[in-house]
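Q: Second attempt. The first request was missing the SMILES, so the protein and flavin-adenine dinucleotide are both included now.
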Amino acid sequence: MSHLFPHIAADTGYDRRRPVALHAPARQPRIAIIGGSLTGPTLALLLIQAGFDAVTVYEAAPAAATLGGGLISLEHSSLDVLDRLGIDQDEFVKFRFETITQITGNDAAGSGVTRRVYPGRFTTWPLLHDALTRRLPAGVVQHGQKVTGLAETRGMPVLHFADGASAPADLVAFADGRASVGRRLLDPHRQLHYAGYVGHRGQTSHLPTELSQFLRLEPCPGVQFNIAPIPGGCDWTFYLNASAERYTDLFGASPHRRVFALPHHVGPAARHEVDTYAALHLPADQADVVHASHLRMAVPMLDIDPPTQMVWPIGAGHAVLLGDALAPVRPHTARGANNGIEQAAGLAAVLRQHRAYRADLPAALTGWQRRHLPAAVTAVRLGPTIGHRLGLGTRHCEVTTRSLAAAAG
Ligand SMILES: Cc1cc2nc3c(=O)[nH]c(=O)nc-3n(C[C@H](O)[C@H](O)[C@H](O)COP(=O)(O)OP(=O)(O)OC[C@H]3O[C@@H](n4cnc5c(N)ncnc54)[C@H](O)[C@@H]3O)c2cc1C
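A: Got both inputs this time. The predicted holo structure:
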């Protein structure tokens, strides 16, 4: 089955099917999901599938906005969640490879080559986002709705929006990403820390010879380059050290303010710097790919204090954090989207138990937190360990700065 909600796609709005509702309450709980990227739409689909029909996704970006993103690897646990939503894997996995080839150092004899099989598959943000959002019934996602506040009013959570509007909810699920307003409101002491390096990204239709699977190059400390085929070309990420000041010079705002540098933030100086590093550190065909890439983005690596809580009571209602809103993790861990999807599936499961069998809601949410918090904390802690092993991060900034100066001089 490729589509779970064929009758909805035809016309009618929400899925009216119910789960086995032994003790369904008189009124459907109003569930507000903040963020319409990956975690939010996954949660919305799972809840609708479970019979909740008062689900709204509030997304800050306007409907017409082109949101970007590149290659994402999904583990089998996440793939299975998508399977259970009836999303055919062929729709978002366009290359069937599972192998990651890693080349460490510049050893011409090839002794630094290792291959491992990734326990999952590779997709891209646009493919996955499209597969999820096109299944959401009309009207579920409300674009251009930027949440700015959450208050308890008459004993219930009420969301406030940038345009002055407000909306009550029984449960508010913040899936609003690494700069989450939900995290700022609910868990204000957890800060983001710039880790001292940047993931420069690019896409091009120029394919290096014989690139048919994921290739990772680690030519020297302080440099990692990942490249893989995507529909129409290839996608690469080039990790390089950069001080916060350098990031600000290159992308026009500090790493904390500009948590994603979008294509229009990447000017000639940033392109030139990345091209120079590519020529310095990468084999000629990979450096050519970088040079030929018109579409460029960048992501500052940001760490966060590990989470200790995912659920907050707000009067008689609740608010939760999940996905990057709970804990953005370094991309090397390949756990960000996976965490969000697994947490969404766990949350939908406990809400269904509450609705269908009157499971005690605070206890059910606490159980969800107990199951998912450890994986989020582990991924938050793993990022700096990997970065350190690669010579990437604050303490290593000087190494890259010197290598660039040497190349220039
Ligand atoms: C280079 C790179 C490689 C990666 N590779 C992998 C990988 O291989 N595997 C993996 O699992 N993960 C990977 N990730 C991480 C993954 O992309 C993220 O974890 C994932 O996108 C998080 O999804 P999300 O929906 O939780 O948050 P986001 O994708 O950040 O989406 C948040 C959404 O909330 C909206 N929003 C924000 N604020 C508000 C507001 N106030 N009101 C309303 N809406 C708001 C935003 O517009 C956005 O649409 C990678 C990330 C990067 C940068």
